[in-house]
Amino acid sequence: MASIIHEFAYDVFLSFRGEDTRYGFTGNLKKALVDKGVRTFMDDAELQKGDEITPSLLNAIESSK
Prior knowledge:
It is a single chain. 0% of the residues are buried. By secondary structure, the chain is α+β, with helices and mostly antiparallel strands. The radius of gyration is 14 Å and the shape is flat. It has 3 helices and 2 strands; from the N terminus they run E-H-H-E-H. It has one domain. 35% of the residues lie in helices and 9% in strands. Strands 1-2 form a two-stranded parallel sheet.
């Protein structure tokens, strides 16, 4: 059986909600991961509860380990 090899664009997809974590904990976590060479995705758009996930965001999720 042939093995399937996936190429991931990101090692980590950071999921969060709210400005308080975007510029605090989550922002600091992203910086620390990137500084260590971890390919990290953090969305810049602010989704509100009930908003639909955009195709580009779905792509980032699927492109993450």
